[in-house]
Structures are given as structure tokens and as C-alpha cells.
Amino acid sequence: MADRQTLTESGSGGELPGAGAETAPDLPFGAPIGAEAARESAREATATAAVAAASAAAVRRGGRFRGLLPRRSGKLVTGLVIVGAITLFGLLGPLIAQPPRDSNNPALLPPGPEHWLGTTKLGYDVFSQLAYGTQGSLFIGLVAGLVALVLGGLFGVFAGYFGGIADEVLTLITNIVLVIPGLPVVMVIAAYVQNADGLGPLARSSLLVALVLGITSWAGSAVVLRAQARSLRTREYVAAARVAGERPARIIFVEILPNLVPLLAAQFIFGVILAVLGEAGLSYLGLGPTGSITLGTMLNDAQTGQAVGTGAWWWFVPPGAIIAALGAGLSLINFAIDEVVNPKLRLAPENAKRQRKATKAGKGVADTGAFA
């Protein structure tokens, strides 16, 4: 009798590890059939309690500020590796390559030990041209992305913060630029300024192409930044700075812009992608820079030299692959930044992982109760 009492006390006081909930009570022999439903209900309640306990434990283990920090992302790592490798190639490649305009080589040689990527129809080394072309395209992308970011930030942030007439005027200008077809405008401007008198060496330079691409691609960034600036100007710390008598310029640069850094980075990367692709398109059409080598000018030379018809795949495949890889790497970095900016995207993988753990814990508790 004492053993039975001890066993009963031990069973009633025991808890399942990690669940924090009591097991379903045993039913006496000969109980009615409806009691089985009550037993099943008790098991479901136990499983629900286990799910809640596991979720709470996961939140406690994660820390209070873990959700505010950028999560280690495979997209970010992959994008940084791709972009970093291409950047290093563009910076270090010209140091080990021969001059890109050296024509003292046999024409249309396939890749080999002497010429790693072969030669062109004029005897230019493709590896040398690819190294210098990558450097030129990166320069155009960075300059154009910076120009688009500055213009988009000025129009978007100032319109969003000041509101009123300033917002209406700046938004009207932004909308006009936004609805104008980009590629035809870029083609017309590039063709005009490259043939204009008085520009000197700037007429057909990479800098001019970068400025044209940046000036024609800032409107999209302005719309995004304006919406975020309108949201930030109603925050308490901005209102407190305004009440304290701070100047609008200081409020914008000290209180608002630091909170827009992830969004500014995303817009800058997007501008670089557009500029690299835009330069490739302009150069392929014969409107790119002629005083320097870019990936786009390589594609144009391959097209005019009938590389496809002659089977010289090594002439056009490498620059096309670099453009595609650079665009993919920058896009992956942009996606990773979006996960930092958007809380839903940032917390979705972590929440899904917690839910899977909690579901497994609840299923294990329910199975244990079924065999009790």
C-alpha cells in the first residue's frame, strides 16, 4: 500500500522535461467512453503548452536585441564574395596584364598558356581587355550610383521632411523624371553630349557616361526615400529636436539620415546595378565611351568583329559573364540589406525555425502522453 502511494505521488509530481506542464490524468478502469475524449483533450492542451514553452525559451535564448542585429545571411556572404572577387580582379588584373591595346599578338587565338583568354580579331589580349574593362565598368557604376543617390536623397528626403509646397514641387519634378522612358533619354543625351563642341576630353569619356546614367536614374530612389522621410519626421525624437529649436538642416543630417543608412545603401547598390547594365547597353549600341575600355565596349567590339560568326566565343563570353556575375552579386547584397530594413523579412526565417522546434516539442509531448 505504501509502495502504491509512493508511486502515485511520484507520478503526480513528475513533469516532462522542457514542457513545464503536467501529464494527462489517468482514467479509472470502467470509465465511460466519453472519458477518452477528455483524455485526448488533455493531451492536446499539454502539446499546446509545450509549444508555448518552447517558443518562449527560444526567445529568451535569442536575447533581447538579437532581432535588431543583421542576421548572418547566406545571400550577403555569397554576394560579398562575388563582388569582392570581381573588384579585386578589376584592381589587380591591370597590374599583371599586358597593355590592352597591344596588337603584336596573333589574331583570334583560342585560350592557351600564353593568352589565358585568347586574342581578338585585332590581336588584343582578351584577359588584358577584361581586366581593364572590369575596372572601367566598376568606375562608371560607382560614379553613377553615387550621383543618383545624392540627387535622389536631396529630392526625396527634403520633400519628405518639409512637406507643403516644397514637397509638391519636388514630387512633381520627381514624377516627371520618373515617367520619362529612361533608355531613349539616355541614348539621346549620350549621343548629343559626346558630339558637342567645347567638352574637350570629357566628350567621350567614362566620366561623362557615368554622369549621364546617374542624372537619369535618381527618381526611383527619391520616391522611396521620400516615403521613409515622411514617416520619420513624425517620430518623437524628431519632434523633440524641432521643439528644442534645432535647425532643419541639422535635424535632417543628424536625426533622419542616420536612420536611412540601410535604405541609402540599398538604393546605392541598385543604382550601381542599373549603371553597369546601362553602360553595357549604350556601349553595345555604339554610344559608350571610346577613350577607355569597359565590358560594354568589349561586347561592342565582339559584335562588330563578328565574333559569333567566327566562333570566337572567348571574345564575348567573359565580359558577358562578368556583367551577369556582378549583377547577381550586387542583387544578393541588396536582398540581404532588404532583410535588415524590413523586419518581416528579417524575422521570417528565425520565426519559421522557432515554429518548427516548437512543433517538434509539442509532437514529442503528445506522443509521450499517448503512451502514458
TrEMBL record:
Keywords assigned: Cell membrane, Membrane, Transmembrane, Transmembrane helix, Transport
GO cellular component: plasma membrane
GO molecular function, one term: dipeptide transmembrane transporter activity
TM helices/strands, residue ranges: 76-97, 138-162, 169-193, 205-225, 256-277, 313-337
Domain ABC transmembrane type-1: 134-334
Biased composition (Polar residues): 1-10
Region Disordered: start-end pairs: 1-31, 352-372
Membrane topology annotation: Multi-pass membrane protein
InterPro entries from the UniProt entry: BP-dependent_transpt_permease, MetI-like, MetI-like_sf
Record SUPFAM superfamilies: MetI-like
Pfam families: BPD_transp_1 (PF00528)
Subcellular location(s) per record: Cell membrane
Presence of keyword Protein biosynthesis: no
PANTHER family: D,D-DIPEPTIDE TRANSPORT SYSTEM PERMEASE PROTEIN DDPC-RELATED, OLIGOPEPTIDE TRANSPORT SYSTEM PERMEASE PROTEIN APPC
Similarity field: Belongs to the binding-protein-dependent transport system permease family.
Protein name: ABC transporter permease
Organism listed in the record: Agromyces mediolanus (Corynebacterium mediolanum)
Lineage, opening ranks: Bacteria, Bacillati, Actinomycetota, Actinomycetes, Micrococcales
